[in-house]
Amino acid sequence: MIKLRFFLVVSVMVAVFFAGCAKPPIEEMNNAVAAVSRAENDPDVVAYAAQALSRAREALAQMQTEADAKRYESAKRLAAEAQSLAERAISDGQAAAARAKEDAENAIRAMQNAISETEQVLNNASRSPPAGVNIQALEKEFSDARGIANQATVAQNEGNYSEAFEKSQAVRSALSSINSRLSQAVISASRKK
Hints:
Blueprint: H1 2-21, H2 26-40, H3 43-48, H4 50-68, H5 72-127, H6 135-157, H7 161-192
Helix pairs in contact: 2-4, 2-5, 4-5, 5-6, 5-7, 6-7
């Protein structure tokens, strides 16, 4: 019994000694902080990968809590997790930005085609306006749509792909409305003949 008690006391003392000698994972923690900082300063991450960035920040906060409590193995694991999550956020942000750019380019291209088509339809309609159609009002709407189209192109050139996409969609909707009203007027006029 005395041997067992002595063994337990020595075991506890050794464990306490080694726990007191454990060192915080400074390098791993610094790497995690740097990775999360890079992610926070990446505009693609901020715009397109905010949730992934949030998870990286949470892991970083937990890492600090564990380090403060001198649970260094847990802090080291969380540092690796925070770094991995931050790097993933950067990767996700870049991929999402590339998709957004492609979507905006396609939307701008479709918008430009719709502008050309609507311009031709309006020019034809202005030569012989269908009854009940206010061509000047439609031309004003068309002009307004072109102004928004210019804003979409500027947004695209500035790298604001979501705004470029939204504005180009708004232009296409306005042009579709103009074309629809002209078509309905032509159909109504042909029925009356």
